[in-house]
Amino acid sequence: MSRRPIVSDTVTWEFNATYLAASGERVPLPTSLRYDPVDPVAITMSMWVTDQRAVVWTFARRLFVDGARRCAGLGDVRIRPLVRDRRRVLLVELTSPGGHALIELPANRVNDFIAHTYDLLPASAEDAVVERDLELRVLKGHTRS
Questions:
Q1: H-type helices in 58-125, by residue range?
Q2: Closest C-alpha to 28, from 12, 42, 14, 17
């Protein structure tokens, strides 16, 4: 069994994103990004579609890093940089059985958030936190030691 280092608490940043409706309408979308160093490779994005209901997606932390520079992602999730109205945004494209969504995130806020997560836990320390053997057993359907 590997020893897990003690890490700091979860970090959540809130900001306004924009939902790009199929009609062309731009709808403000209260959004938060959450990082928990216990799961160092993941970022959770919650988008509040009503006061009581959020749509939640979890991404690889590295996807935001790559998506800030060039189109990144495969399948259901893609992120790419874009300049709209002279400001930098990250365009997040999400596809699920429930539909398709385009979300613009403020690039500077997201990049600052991601940089902060790497200050908390650098990429070089991820292996000390992630139990790779356990993850492989779970993926293969073997949860016993």
A1: 61-67, 107-120
A2: 17
